[in-house]
Amino acid sequence: MLGIGDYGAFCAAILIFLALPGPGTFALLTSTAKGGLRAGAAATLGVIVGDQVLLWLAVAGVAALLAANPLIFQGVQYLGAAYLTWIGLKLILARPGSAPPIRIEPRQYARQAFLITLLNPKAIVFYMAFFPLFIDPVQHRGAVTFMAMAATIAVITAAYGLTLCAFANAITAQVRAHRKLGQALERLAGVFLVGFGIRLGTQ
Q1: Span 161-190, mean pLDDT?
Q2: What is the average per-residue pLDDT within 84-98?
Q3: What is the domain extent for residue 96?
Protein backbone atom coordinates (compact mmCIF):
# COMPACT_ATOMS: atom_id res chain seq x y z
CA MET A 1 0.00 0.00 0.00
CA LEU A 2 1.67 3.21 -1.24
CA GLY A 3 5.07 1.62 -0.76
CA ILE A 4 4.37 0.37 2.78
CA GLY A 5 5.19 -3.30 3.14
CA ASP A 6 2.74 -5.30 5.32
CA TYR A 7 0.45 -2.42 6.23
CA GLY A 8 -1.38 -4.48 8.85
CA ALA A 9 1.84 -5.23 10.72
CA PHE A 10 2.77 -1.55 10.46
CA CYS A 11 -0.49 -0.53 12.17
CA ALA A 12 -0.10 -3.25 14.82
CA ALA A 13 3.44 -2.10 15.60
CA ILE A 14 2.22 1.48 16.11
CA LEU A 15 -0.47 0.30 18.54
CA ILE A 16 2.04 -1.77 20.50
CA PHE A 17 4.40 1.21 20.70
CA LEU A 18 1.57 3.47 21.93
CA ALA A 19 0.43 0.92 24.52
CA LEU A 20 3.86 0.81 26.16
CA PRO A 21 3.76 2.95 29.33
CA GLY A 22 5.74 6.13 28.83
CA PRO A 23 5.76 9.89 29.44
CA GLY A 24 3.19 10.50 26.70
CA THR A 25 0.70 8.07 28.24
CA PHE A 26 0.99 9.68 31.66
CA ALA A 27 0.66 13.14 30.10
CA LEU A 28 -2.67 12.08 28.58
CA LEU A 29 -3.93 10.52 31.80
CA THR A 30 -2.84 13.44 33.98
CA SER A 31 -4.32 16.02 31.61
CA THR A 32 -7.65 14.19 31.53
CA ALA A 33 -7.74 13.85 35.30
CA LYS A 34 -7.08 17.56 35.73
CA GLY A 35 -9.15 19.09 32.95
CA GLY A 36 -11.55 16.45 31.71
CA LEU A 37 -12.04 15.09 28.23
CA ARG A 38 -11.31 18.44 26.52
CA ALA A 39 -7.93 18.59 28.21
CA GLY A 40 -7.24 14.97 27.28
CA ALA A 41 -8.16 15.67 23.66
CA ALA A 42 -5.88 18.72 23.65
CA ALA A 43 -3.04 16.64 25.09
CA THR A 44 -3.66 13.99 22.42
CA LEU A 45 -3.30 16.69 19.78
CA GLY A 46 -0.04 17.77 21.40
CA VAL A 47 1.30 14.22 21.27
CA ILE A 48 0.29 13.88 17.62
CA VAL A 49 1.99 17.14 16.62
CA GLY A 50 5.12 16.22 18.58
CA ASP A 51 5.22 12.81 16.93
CA GLN A 52 4.84 14.35 13.50
CA VAL A 53 7.74 16.74 14.14
CA LEU A 54 9.97 13.90 15.32
CA LEU A 55 8.84 11.69 12.47
CA TRP A 56 9.82 14.17 9.77
CA LEU A 57 13.04 15.03 11.56
CA ALA A 58 13.88 11.33 11.45
CA VAL A 59 13.01 11.22 7.75
CA ALA A 60 15.33 14.15 7.20
CA GLY A 61 18.15 12.32 8.94
CA VAL A 62 18.26 14.34 12.14
CA ALA A 63 18.53 11.15 14.14
CA ALA A 64 21.78 10.33 12.38
CA LEU A 65 23.00 13.86 13.08
CA LEU A 66 22.23 13.54 16.77
CA ALA A 67 23.92 10.15 16.92
CA ALA A 68 27.01 11.61 15.23
CA ASN A 69 27.14 14.51 17.71
CA PRO A 70 26.86 13.09 21.23
CA LEU A 71 26.92 16.53 22.87
CA ILE A 72 23.84 17.66 20.94
CA PHE A 73 22.08 14.39 21.67
CA GLN A 74 22.89 14.60 25.37
CA GLY A 75 21.75 18.21 25.51
CA VAL A 76 18.32 17.28 24.15
CA GLN A 77 18.23 14.28 26.44
CA TYR A 78 18.99 16.29 29.58
CA LEU A 79 16.50 18.99 28.62
CA GLY A 80 13.75 16.42 28.23
CA ALA A 81 14.72 14.72 31.49
CA ALA A 82 14.62 18.03 33.37
CA TYR A 83 11.20 18.90 31.96
CA LEU A 84 9.68 15.54 32.91
CA THR A 85 11.20 15.72 36.38
CA TRP A 86 9.88 19.25 36.90
CA ILE A 87 6.32 18.25 36.01
CA GLY A 88 6.53 15.14 38.18
CA LEU A 89 7.80 17.08 41.19
CA LYS A 90 4.96 19.59 40.86
CA LEU A 91 2.48 16.72 40.99
CA ILE A 92 4.20 15.12 43.98
CA LEU A 93 4.57 18.35 45.97
CA ALA A 94 1.12 19.78 45.22
CA ARG A 95 -0.79 20.45 48.45
CA PRO A 96 -4.32 19.05 48.83
CA GLY A 97 -6.82 21.64 47.65
CA SER A 98 -4.17 23.80 46.01
CA ALA A 99 -4.34 24.99 42.43
CA PRO A 100 -3.57 22.23 39.93
CA PRO A 101 0.09 22.10 38.90
CA ILE A 102 -0.93 22.14 35.24
CA ARG A 103 -2.96 25.00 33.82
CA ILE A 104 -6.56 24.33 32.92
CA GLU A 105 -6.65 25.91 29.44
CA PRO A 106 -6.70 23.18 26.75
CA ARG A 107 -3.86 24.84 24.85
CA GLN A 108 -1.66 24.48 27.93
CA TYR A 109 -2.30 20.75 28.06
CA ALA A 110 -1.57 20.50 24.34
CA ARG A 111 1.66 22.46 24.75
CA GLN A 112 2.79 20.32 27.68
CA ALA A 113 2.12 17.04 25.86
CA PHE A 114 3.85 18.42 22.76
CA LEU A 115 6.99 19.31 24.73
CA ILE A 116 7.03 15.98 26.55
CA THR A 117 6.89 14.19 23.19
CA LEU A 118 9.33 16.50 21.42
CA LEU A 119 11.97 16.36 24.16
CA ASN A 120 12.34 12.62 23.91
CA PRO A 121 15.36 12.01 21.65
CA LYS A 122 14.80 8.26 21.79
CA ALA A 123 11.62 8.76 19.78
CA ILE A 124 13.67 10.22 16.92
CA VAL A 125 15.97 7.20 16.94
CA PHE A 126 12.92 4.93 17.15
CA TYR A 127 11.41 6.45 14.02
CA MET A 128 14.75 6.25 12.23
CA ALA A 129 14.94 2.53 12.93
CA PHE A 130 11.20 1.94 12.56
CA PHE A 131 10.59 3.20 9.03
CA PRO A 132 13.00 0.90 7.14
CA LEU A 133 11.22 -2.16 8.54
CA PHE A 134 8.02 -1.37 6.65
CA ILE A 135 9.21 0.27 3.43
CA ASP A 136 8.80 -1.78 0.28
CA PRO A 137 11.95 -0.94 -1.76
CA VAL A 138 10.22 -1.97 -4.99
CA GLN A 139 7.03 0.06 -4.57
CA HIS A 140 8.49 2.89 -2.49
CA ARG A 141 7.23 6.29 -3.71
CA GLY A 142 9.47 8.63 -1.75
CA ALA A 143 7.61 11.44 0.00
CA VAL A 144 4.23 9.86 -0.80
CA THR A 145 5.16 6.75 1.18
CA PHE A 146 6.37 8.77 4.15
CA MET A 147 3.23 10.91 4.05
CA ALA A 148 1.07 7.78 4.11
CA MET A 149 3.05 6.49 7.10
CA ALA A 150 2.78 9.83 8.90
CA ALA A 151 -0.98 10.00 8.30
CA THR A 152 -1.44 6.44 9.55
CA ILE A 153 0.52 7.17 12.71
CA ALA A 154 -1.52 10.34 13.33
CA VAL A 155 -4.88 8.58 12.89
CA ILE A 156 -3.97 5.62 15.10
CA THR A 157 -2.49 7.92 17.76
CA ALA A 158 -5.67 10.02 17.74
CA ALA A 159 -7.91 6.96 18.08
CA TYR A 160 -5.78 5.46 20.84
CA GLY A 161 -5.31 8.73 22.73
CA LEU A 162 -8.98 9.70 22.67
CA THR A 163 -10.03 6.19 23.75
CA LEU A 164 -7.56 6.29 26.63
CA CYS A 165 -8.72 9.76 27.66
CA ALA A 166 -12.39 8.74 27.47
CA PHE A 167 -11.67 5.83 29.79
CA ALA A 168 -9.71 8.05 32.17
CA ASN A 169 -12.50 10.64 32.15
CA ALA A 170 -15.08 7.96 32.95
CA ILE A 171 -13.29 6.95 36.14
CA THR A 172 -12.34 10.50 37.15
CA ALA A 173 -15.65 11.04 38.92
CA GLN A 174 -15.09 7.89 40.96
CA VAL A 175 -11.61 9.02 41.89
CA ARG A 176 -12.78 12.50 42.87
CA ALA A 177 -15.34 10.96 45.18
CA HIS A 178 -12.42 9.51 47.12
CA ARG A 179 -10.14 12.51 47.63
CA LYS A 180 -7.29 10.61 49.26
CA LEU A 181 -7.26 8.07 46.46
CA GLY A 182 -7.17 10.87 43.90
CA GLN A 183 -4.25 12.53 45.69
CA ALA A 184 -2.40 9.22 45.88
CA LEU A 185 -2.88 8.57 42.15
CA GLU A 186 -1.75 12.11 41.34
CA ARG A 187 1.44 11.62 43.33
CA LEU A 188 1.93 8.21 41.74
CA ALA A 189 1.76 9.83 38.31
CA GLY A 190 4.33 12.35 39.52
CA VAL A 191 6.62 9.56 40.70
CA PHE A 192 6.40 7.87 37.30
CA LEU A 193 7.21 11.12 35.48
CA VAL A 194 10.19 11.78 37.75
CA GLY A 195 11.29 8.18 37.18
CA PHE A 196 11.08 8.62 33.42
CA GLY A 197 13.04 11.86 33.72
CA ILE A 198 15.80 10.23 35.76
CA ARG A 199 15.95 7.23 33.45
CA LEU A 200 16.12 9.44 30.37
CA GLY A 201 18.84 11.59 31.89
CA THR A 202 21.06 8.72 33.03
CA GLN A 203 20.95 6.44 29.99
Answers
A1: 73
A2: 70
A3: 7-202
User: What pTM value is reported for the model?
Assistant: 0.73
pLDDT at res. 120: 74
**pLDDT of 177 over the 60 cut:** no
Count how many domains the chain has.
1
Residue 2 forms part of a structural domain: no
Residue 113's alpha-carbon distances to 24, 118, 161, 177, 194, in angstroms, are 7, 8, 12, 27, 15
Q: What is the pLDDT of residue 141?
A: 67
